[in-house]
């Protein structure tokens, strides 16, 4: 098993930039892995593919220097185990609302006696390595998503969950949970305050503060707030924005597409 370069980078206090893959395209996955991102997250929750597609995409990301991660569609030990067996070096788990769920999530990513993960690494670069169990437990990263009012209310306890590596904000779902409009380029005060509280909770617990952003400007604002693991938009949002900017530049007109949304 390779060393997790993303874990090393974050452990050194550096900011990591993550790509988000929702298209069922191994070509795009490999391209993103070679584009300078520190990691690429294969999104099995909202991505346009199933588990078979996720395996192909993880393989494609692994062909480049970016660290392959995955977002599981739910707190499901079977799916999380398959994603790890397929080569994900970290899991982002949605809808973690309390420290009990956070502890269950961590256990699903760790082998006994510290967890409940079943043994069965399928990829050759995992299964043929002596000491894989110990390496996997040491290398695989875990993020609990904070995207509900319940999770926000419990964020300090969630962040302090033993073995959890970080929290990750789903800003649009969090905005909906707080009763405000999602997808705004500048977060409303309720979401901005929540972002500050989440970052403070992560720093107090000594874990990674991660978040999805609606573009580069929003990602920079997050880093200024202390977030050290940021996603500056999804693959399709970045492609759509770049395409619209290219068309506008050639025509000499204003960009007509709406700003990127997020998950």
Automatic annotation (TrEMBL):
Residues 20-240 form the HpcH/HpaI aldolase/citrate lyase domain. GO terms for molecular function: aldehyde-lyase activity; metal ion binding. InterPro entries: Aldolase/citrate-lyase_domain, HpcH-HpaI_aldolase, Pyrv/PenolPyrv_kinase-like_dom, Pyrv_kinase-like_dom_sf. Keywords: Lyase, Metal-binding. The keyword Lyase applies. One of its GO terms (cellular component) is cytoplasm. It comes from the Bacteria. The keyword Cytoplasm does not apply. It holds the Pfam family HpcH_HpaI. PANTHER family: 2-KETO-3-DEOXY-L-RHAMNONATE ALDOLASE, PHOSPHOENOLPYRUVATE CARBOXYLASE FAMILY PROTEIN. Belongs to the HpcH/HpaI aldolase family. This is 4-hydroxy-2-oxoheptanedioate aldolase.
